[in-house]
Input
Amino acid sequence: MSKHQIKILDGGLSTELVSLGFSLENCKLWTGKAIAERPDLLKQAHLNFIKSGAEVITTASYQLSIELIIQELNCSELQARNLIKKSVQIVREAISEANNQNILIAGSIGPYGACLCDGSEFRGDYVHDLSEEFLIEWHRPRLECLLEEKVDLIAIETFPSIKEAKAVLKLISNYPEIKAWLAFSCKNENELSVGDKFSSAYPLFEKNQQLIAIGINCSLPNDITSLLESVLKDGKATKPFVVYSNDAKRWNETNSEYDVDDGTDPIQPVLENIPKWMELGATFIGGCCKISSEHLKIIKNLIENF
Output
């Protein structure tokens, strides 16, 4: 894979916001809270990633549903929709300030489980109790808001199951002009968070013409390489991969914190695996949790010098 064919994504938006002094403690809207409270810091976070080499910036709409916004901000449905739209407007402001109109805007669509605010997106078991029709209708308002603001593509990200991915892609099929990527959250080197095999998920979606890439995010770097290898045909990917991993620290859900630092550099496994991802067919590479704009500079340089 030529370095010229790689699109550099941004990094962990929550990580960057925290580094700028924004608190996400007990925050059900997650990075979406910054849209309402500190749009200036949110714009700066996006700008930091652009300055570090990001060619695609993702909106802060990952953990936003109409119901959750209304609940947390005590606002109207119209105001909730406008908040989602503002996530795109803030990215556009950052792009304008950076004077780089080549940057693409990816509208973030997180899973239903993210808006349960209890880590469900990393288990995915909630999908067993929900119908495809329910999931489609739940995802519809946010998608409509992002499309009304004319995002360049949709980032379907941190999805824990095949079932929810199918539902959202069925919804997106109503908008045939829009392109998207699909990134799953995975719990080990074989399985999505709910237990579906990645090797079963990838072939289900590889022929979808609206998907520009399929892959993995918010997962451990060493697991991702094995996951990608599991779906190759004759040593090649039939659909490009999108990869934006966490650093190598494992999240301890019981204690709601990352595992104790063992003295190793948690970014190193990411850097060691990126050349492998490129060789396997990744054309979209960035970072997720714990990957800052400073880390993204290193990632960009690694790719450019590969």
Q: What stands out?
A: The chain has a mean pLDDT of 94. The longest helix spans residues 77-98. The CA atoms of residues 119 and 253 lie 8 Å apart. DSSP finds eleven helices and ten strands in the chain.
